[in-house]
Request: fold
Amino acid sequence: MSAAISCNLYSKVAEYRGSPVSSLFAPSRLEQEPTKDQSPNAILHGAIAESKSGLEHLNTNLETLNLFFYLEGFSETTDKMTTSILSPPVPLLCPSVQHQGCLPYTLDELVGDIKAHLGESGGIGYANINSDYLMSLAQKYNSNPNDWARYYHNCAEKSYTRNTIENINSRANILLLVWNPGKGSPVHDHANAHCVLKVLAGELTETIYDIPEDEGHPLRVKKQSTYHTDEVTYMSDEIGLHRVHNPHSTQVAVSLHLYTPPNAADIGYNVFDEATGKASFIAQAKSLSVGRS
Reply:
């Protein structure tokens, strides 16, 4: 990689974090002359605090920079990639906020808590699912590409790619979806299942429709919302039909989906013609098995 590209990319990362590159190399407080109101101890303590803050800031930037390089490794050739380093798939890659002395809630912990809620073996039925609790778990997790980059795979020829993170006792599945620029899903139902959706990178626009009573009429839009990184939403057939798409023309988006029970994958689901309301059955939604099970 050329120095020019590296410099340009690093500038993008530093700009994203809210400060120019030059601020990382600001003069140390120790190099400043004390004023008459400052004691040497005060200057020393201030310099230590400033240095610690600067290192944390630099580490955060470098983690983000490393992820740009890491995600590039998922494609065998650069011409197959939807986006390039200079148009990264993630400004997107918003590092999770880590408070001093507090370890972040990880994706593995999220999966573990979902499994605990669903049960160790047989799971629980649709009617007994606590969707509010599942949403609270998803909200608790701050997107961290270090967690989910191992599941990231994007098929450039598809509108979106479904990647399996976990199958839970045949009672639920957790997927990582990668949405190509400007692409989206057809209007569809959820096969009598709960769906919790969390945006991990970029933005996604959801359009919700009334379930048509008969065919021959355009679908009626109930609501349209755009969700940003770390925002969570919930969908089920009781709410209606929906369509999800990536509104950006140059950047991919990434999202986490929990389906319980996994009826769409095990049996199938219906897609709908937006102009006529006609339903068509799609057997077994397929995913790429890049996850742990």
In short: The radius of gyration is 23 Å.
